[in-house]
What we know:
Blueprint: H1 21-24, H2 31-42, H3 47-57, H4 69-76, H5 81-86
Helix pairs in contact: 3-4
Amino acid sequence: MRRTVREIGWAVRGACRGSDPELFFPPAPSVEQESRAKAVCAGCPVLDDCRAYAVRAAEPEGIWGGLTVKERRGLRFPAGWRQRAAG
Ligand code: SF4
């Protein structure tokens, strides 16, 4: 049987376990929903592991480690990275 990431390792200790999945993966994201999800993440004991995984895996959707997709992309590709890579 294939396990999902939420069933292995650090994920079983996540504060979001048991939360409504639509809070973290909403069909229509909003600032209010993001704030509510981030508030759950703020008290999560595995926030660092979750964030590191999501950035490394380039998770394409949802709130992971207290960050949105755009915020995670910003960690992977900081401002000016194209110029530094070309230079
Ligand atoms: S940091 Fe947020 S998304 Fe990640 S396991 Fe914790 S509560 Fe869930």
